[in-house]
Design goal:
Elements: H1 12-16, E1 22-24, E2 27-29, E3 36-41, E4 46-52, H2 56-72, H3 74-77, H4 80-96, H5 98-109, H6 113-134, E5 149-157, E6 160-164, H7 170-183, E7 187-191, H8 198-210, E8 217-219, H9 228-234, E9 240-244, H10 247-256, E10 263-267, E11 273-276, H11 282-294, E12 306-310, H12 314-327, H13 346-361, E13 365-368, E14 386-389, H14 396-399, E15 406-412, H15 415-423, E16 427-428, E17 430-434, H16 438-447, E18 452-455, E19 470-471, E20 474-475, H17 482-486, E21 488-496
The structure holds adenosine-5'-diphosphate.
Length: 498
């Protein structure tokens, strides 16, 4: 197997510096409790590194450091040009260590190295560069309403920001959070997911090296509930929480935020409809369905997990889909040839298996997969690419987010019917339509209640294009100019001119 040998690893030095520490006020420190936790390689179950287990006491320290940096540090006095330059430098530093980041991401999360290398790392770099450009373009306005007064608006940073991120795209989610918050002049505390803390810590090292002032970026690794994540969302001196993760966690964070009414933006789960009409380019749509659900092992909030096929193409489509799904090379993500890796943890693997069981119990037909692979892969947290046909939109596997490589295939007869079924779900993060008929495409694009609709493509992203949810997929838009709204607030200044 062409797995990169340990001696060749670009991230070896970083991994050998375990236990990893917390970044607070520009210094790397142990947790106040002295506790650490292990982060595992999901392909093998082996320990990759030990990491400091931050808790409320560490969050308190980090918030203090961020507040001090916001109110009194050089960050506040720095020009927007200088802030932008620091973001450009951080992007350059990630690029200079691109291999190292790709390896860390694959080892910690399990995803295929080809995805880490060609998607996660370059998109993280792009995000930092995109927002580096924004730093100098954040503006207020003047409004002439009355000659007796001069009014202008200031667009100011929100202040101290807490950012809680998930484990599916650890570096990229850190970039989506950090880059706009920093461009706008905030200071922050990042809480990476406990399953995948490593790339964020390496990012923190580079941020220190390129010269971000101390306390501007603080990183506290640890757990969520009753721990670091919850302490951050409850903290009375945090002005805003930005969260990406499960809908249930988002609701808890919202409740925890009420103490000081901090601003909250939430990017939560999805159950995206991927709709294929008979007039579509079928081979392209099959590929789109495969990427839609199996990219990143299905651990994607915008995964196309409900595939709606027009009745007349169902049989042909399913035959092609099965062949492609069964042909995916599953293995250790460090193998260059791997197309689908392990799930992030044993817990996720078990959760997915319980959904597969539920699908079978509810009467859906297993087209392929449905089990854990054996042999070499048995020690990792793998689930075979799984397709269910004959799914009805009320079934659990059609309504709940599985966050794994499990596709539910449904069928439809008309545009009206599919639009209604597509929207009959609690989520609204994304959707897709495959057709050559532009009227149908635009009609559905407007009817689907979701923050992103792809037409004849899937999983296309760009740092300049907003992303976020309708309904229970959350609120607020990340990326593009819309993220500037999340991290700034407006002040109106009235001056008497009479
Ligand atoms: P998952 O269940 O898939 O791990 P979560 O939404 O629970 O997804 O986790 C996403 C992030 O939220 C992680 O960083 C996790 O530690 C954090 N988290 C989990 N529970 C809470 C909570 N009650 N308060 C704040 N953060 C939390």
């Amino acid at each position: 197997m062409a797995v990169v040998q340990e001696k060749e690893l670009a991230c070896k030095a970083f991994l050998s510096g375990s236990p990893k520490k917390l970044l607070i006020g520009g210094k790397w420190v142990d947790a106040e409790s002295g506790k650490t936790f292990e982060t595992l390689n999901p392909a093998t179950g082996e320990v990759l590194a030990k990491v400091a287990e931050g808790s409320k006491a560490d969050i308190d320290k980090a918030v203090k450091a961020a507040r001090d940096a916001f109110e009194n540090g050089p960050w506040r006095k720095m020009s927007s040009y200088e802030r932008g330059r620091l973001l450009y430098k951080l992007a350059d530093a990630i690029e200079a260590h691109a291999d190292e980041f790709a390896q860390l991401e694959t080892l910690d999360n399990g995803k295929p190295i080809r995805e880490s290398r060609y998607v996660d790392v370059p998109q993280a770099i792009e995000t930092f560069r995109y927002y580096a450009g924004w730093a100098t373009k954040i503006e207020g306005e003047t409004v002439n309403v009355n000659p007796d007064f001069f009014n202008y608006t200031l667009r100011e940073p929100v202040g101290v920001v807490g950012q809680i991120i998930p484990w599916n795209f650890p570096l990229l989610m850190a970039a989506w959070k950090l880059a706009p918050a920093l461009a706008c002049g905030n200071t922050l505390i990042l809480k990476p997911a406990e399953q995948t803390p490593l790339s964020a810590l390496r990012l923190g090292e580079l941020a220190c090296e390129v010269g971000f002032p101390e306390g501007v970026i603080n990183i506290v690794t640890g757990f969520g509930e009753n721990s670091a994540g919850e302490a951050l969302s409850r903290h009375m001196d945090v002005d805003k929480i930005a969260f990406t993760g499960e809908d249930k966690t988002g609701k808890k964070i919202l409740e925890a935020s009420t103490g000081n009414l901090k601003r909250v933006s939430l990017e939560l789960g999805g159950k995206a409809p991927n709709i294929v009409f008979a007039d579509a380019d079928i081979d392209a749509a099959v590929k789109g369905a495969i990427t839609g659900i199996f990219f990143n092992q299905g651990q994607v909030c915008c995964a196309g997990s409900r595939l709606f096929l027009e009745k007349s193409i169902q049989d042909e489509f399913l035959t092609k889909l099965k062949e492609k799904a069964e042909g995916l090379r599953q293995g250790n993500g460090m193998d260059e040839k791997t197309q689908i890796g392990p799930q992030v943890s044993k817990e996720q693997q078990e959760r997915i298996m319980s959904y597969i069981e539920a699908g079978q119990k509810e009467g859906a037909k297993l087209v392929c997969g449905g089990e854990r692979p054996g042999g070499d892969l048995a020690k990792g947290y793998f689930v075979k690419p799984t397709v269910f046909s004959g799914v009805n939109n009320n079934m659990k596997i059609a309504q709940e987010e599985i966050f794994g490589p499990v596709l539910s295939v449904l069928n439809f007869g008309s545009v009206e019917e599919v639009a209604e079924q597509a929207n009959k779900v609690a989520f609204g993060l994304s959707g897709a339509v495959w057709t050559k008929d532009i009227k149908k495409a635009h009609k559905l694009a407007s009817q689907i209640k979701a923050g992103t609709v792809w037409v004849n493509c899937y999983n296309v992203f760009n740092a300049a294009i907003p992303f976020g949810g309708y309904k229970q997929s959350g609120y607020g838009r990340e990326l593009g100019k819309h993220a500037i709204e999340l991290y700034t607030q407006i002040k109106s200044v009235w001056v008497d001119m009479s």
